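Handout, page 2. Input:
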Amino acid sequence: MTSREEGLTEELAREIREAVAQARPPGSHAPASERGTEELEEVRTPLRRAEEHVTPTVPDAAPFFGAKSAVVRLLRFLWRGQASFNALLLEAGNAVVAAIERNTRRFEELASRAEAESRRRDSAQDARLVYLEGLSSRSTPAAAGGRSVEAPPLPESVYALFEERFRGPSSHVAEKQKVYLPFLENLPGPVFDAGCGRGEFLRLLRDHGIAARGVDASGLAVDACRTGGLDVRQGDAIEALAAAPSGSVGAVVAFQVVEHWPAADTFRFLAEARRVTAPGGILIVETVNTGSLAAMNAFYLDPTHVRPVPPEALLFLCDAAGFRELSVEFLSPVPASERLVEQTENDARLNAILFGPQDYAVIGRVPTE
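Output:
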């Protein structure tokens, strides 16, 4: 056999082995987790052994090594197709193992999330039961003159259940909040999320590499956020802002919060937000659109809402607090299937009144000079 033929034989074997190596997904031999490792190893072991025999070889220490190697080279045409088949079969086997590992990791992630959600729900249910059981011990006869003792506030466990039922899943809320991401690029500091609730926006910011922290009054919401690795503290959002150093944040956001406050608290919140936001920073305040009858119907569904805030009023308060470049963004349009069919100009006007956007946001900036 000529040196040229020997070179072709070696090149063929090398190309086949490279094909097998490239077909093997990165980390396919690493266990996905402690569970299932032994089962997958039973598949990996024969695959690794098979890779060693993709093409016939002669061990260096074998008797008559030179002669046997020459015969192997002479007969290479007999197993050229078989070697290709072996390589493709190994590629398929490695792909199956990789798919099993990916599905195993995905299942473990889903199981972990389901377990955390189950614990959270159990905690909320326990809190509701404790609250209901405590009502009888806290109840007192009516005061003189027929006035009854003031009822305790709505327990946070009950409100957490309300949010789950009427606000929608976290994924739906986060999808709607993506509209704000372009406003939060190149900030002079981290984002402060006032009343962060279940942490949908904080997770969204984290996924986009934007530093952020939040405050919420609900201990249940704070526990859920911390379980998800978010920087959240329990407390009053206004007091938390008042305790923050001036110019220490790049943005203050408040989604569906100001409708829970009287006007004086809203203005104090805006004034503190202006103080703690660095020059060039952003303010985003989202609330219910008072110009839409459908939205106002939903407004009174929430028993903790205090008063609706019209866009003109919120714009004025933001301006008075010192924010500039103010604008109003109308969001969450009512689906077309629930609106009137517009055949005339009056139909369009009626749609705007009855089925206008459900939310709006005032967006402002702290002047750089």
